[in-house]
């Protein structure tokens, strides 16, 4: 399993600047807003941006007055995000997370959890649940699929249907809040991303 992480991280390390250039202007405000609405606190709130990449969403959460913390497995992204924001950014392998307990009101996992091998996903979800406060919210967005798993070039991915994904989150002890498909302005066959929100029982 470590090989899946190593090769995937190396891909991002080798293409860090190109990835930043390609994704920095992507509008995922709908995803950020969905997380904040589900948290439902006046703020500022503590948010873990899991797989923060170069720091785009850290910048956005910071500008809204919240207290985001980044985490990424790619050293180049960690350095970019730290320089961009001045915020704490943890450098950790997703398969070996070491998170503070009961520390966050929300986890923003945008386009990242699908890189976790299915056999390792329960442990990762458990670590995220333990890092959230009671009532805390996990947002995830992943490419849709029907359970396919394997390599796409140098990146490992798992592509779940809604039924498969919801079963895994419920097994990990999360309570369902909502889900939607993106981009919302496209017909169903062109909505390639599954977004969902989950709460830690209060």
UniProtKB/TrEMBL annotation:
<protein>
    <submittedName>
        <fullName>Class I SAM-dependent methyltransferase</fullName>
        <ecNumber>2.1.1.-</ecNumber>
    </submittedName>
</protein>
<dbReference type="InterPro" id="IPR041698">
    <property type="entry name" value="Methyltransf_25"/>
</dbReference>
<feature type="domain" description="Methyltransferase">
    <location>
        <begin position="47"/>
        <end position="136"/>
    </location>
</feature>
<dbReference type="Pfam" id="PF13649">
    <property type="entry name" value="Methyltransf_25"/>
</dbReference>
<dbReference type="InterPro" id="IPR029063">
    <property type="entry name" value="SAM-dependent_MTases_sf"/>
</dbReference>
<dbReference type="GO" id="GO:0032259">
    <property type="term" value="P:methylation"/>
</dbReference>
<dbReference type="GO" id="GO:0008168">
    <property type="term" value="F:methyltransferase activity"/>
</dbReference>
<keyword id="KW-0808">Transferase</keyword>
<keyword id="KW-0489">Methyltransferase</keyword>
